[in-house]
Amino acid sequence: MNPTKTLVDVQDLTMRFGGLTALDRLDMTIREGEVLGLLGPNGSGKTTFFNVLTGLYKASEGAILYNGHDVIGKRPQEIYRSGVARTFQRSRLSLPLTVFDNIVIGDYQHMHHGLVFNLFRRKAFRAEYDAYVQKVRELLGIFSPPLVDRMFEPVETFTMIDRRRIEVCRALLSRPRLLLLDEPSAGMTHDETHALMGDILDVRSKLGNLTVVLIEHEMNVIERITDRCVVLNYGKKIAEGTYAHITSDPAVQTAYLGE
Ligand code: ADP
């Protein structure tokens, strides 16, 4: 890990939806190994940036160099395989399915072209299944040991914070180099949010080379866990720097804090 190395270099990135410009000639960098907070009022383009970086949307103009290669125009599976994983603001867990199924299903779909086709090749699947059990057990053991013994229980029996942990584990299964977290605190209490952030910092130190970008509204979370922040407003970057730096910036206070 090299903290001065640029892992992601965003150049002049523009994303338009019809007449609406969600990202407006955005330039920013994500450094290897950092926790970067992505801030800004609702509608400022934060989730759109994640969607473009993960290949869900194709940018209108500009480039996102990830490890030196432009991701624009690449398919989501390709970007995932190159080490970019994410969580979503709204839970994507299937509540009746087990923890194991929920963690594995996303990875399986990204690695193969369609779950059903492969499930029919049962012999091959058995070995893969066992390998997945091993991987999930190992990951839960690192991220959230109490969940190991419950990995075959349905997600609906878990608390909100455990469900969030399961979503983060799903994103971590591929052992990504870059983890994008879209408002993981949504719907959680203050204490739960802090516990989850502690887990994320902890897993980061255990897994080693992991860069994290966090969309988050709770300023005390941002202060506690980020190394640096980028603030967006109307799709443009209005500030960049440490938490102390951006919160003392008048442009940020006007746009984001409403002062
Ligand atoms: P944030 O995550 O900062 O709240 P978003 O990235 O979700 O902001 O949205 C930025 C702007 O882009 C908003 O005005 C939103 O309505 C618009 N937008 C986002 N996705 C789409 C889409 N798929 N189609 C049309 N407009 C969109």
Automatic annotation (TrEMBL):
Transmembrane segments: none
Molecular function GO terms recorded: ATP binding; ATP hydrolysis activity; L-isoleucine transmembrane transporter activity; L-phenylalanine transmembrane transporter activity; L-valine transmembrane transporter activity
GO biological process: D-alanine transmembrane transport; L-alanine transport; L-isoleucine import across plasma membrane; L-valine import across plasma membrane
Domain ABC transporter as annotated: residue spans: 8-259
InterPro entries tied to this protein: AAA+_ATPase, ABC_AA/LPS_Transport, ABC_transporter-like_ATP-bd, BCA_ABC_TP_C, P-loop_NTPase
Alphabetized UniProt keyword annotations: ATP-binding, Cell membrane, Membrane, Nucleotide-binding, Transport
A Gene Ontology cellular-component term: plasma membrane
Annotated protein name in UniProt: ABC transporter ATP-binding protein
Organism from which the protein derives: Corticibacter populi
